Amino acid sequence: MVYRSIQGSELTWRKGSGSGEGSDCVEVAAAGPSVLVRDSRAPSAGMLALNSTQWRALVDAIQNGDLDGR
Questions:
Q1: How many CA atoms does the CB half-sphere of 68 hold within 13 Å?
Q2: How far is it, in rounded angstroms, from Cα 69 to Cα 9?
Q3: Distance CA 51, CA 36 (A)
Q4: What are the tens digits of pLDDT across the range 40-69?
Q5: Cα dist. 41→14, 26, 47, 57, 61 in Å?
Q6: 19 phi/psi in degrees, rounded to 5
């Protein structure tokens, strides 16, 4: 599900420490039971809301190198 905005909430967006300052990356924020994911280059373009199962699957795929595209 993609959300364009969440009214009445102040989100704390975080990016990976390995991305460095000024680098474009994916950012995440906790929003109740969901983890929100957005592109730091286009934060107003919307975000994905992942439940805990979807978030765990994404993290596992990243750690396993399944999304490296090589």
A1: 5
A2: 35
A3: 9
A4: 888 889 999 999 999 999 999 989 999 887
A5: 14, 8, 12, 24, 23
A6: -80, -20
Residue-wise pLDDT tens digits, 10-31: 888 888 776 666 667 889 999 8
CA distance 62 to 45: 23
With 0.70 as the threshold, say if the pTM is over it.
yes
- In three-state form (DSSP H/G/I as H, E/B as E, the rest C), the secondary structure along the chain is CEECCCCCCCCCCEECHHHCCCCCCEEEEEECCEEEEEECCCHHHCEEEECHHHHHHHHHHHHCCCCCCC
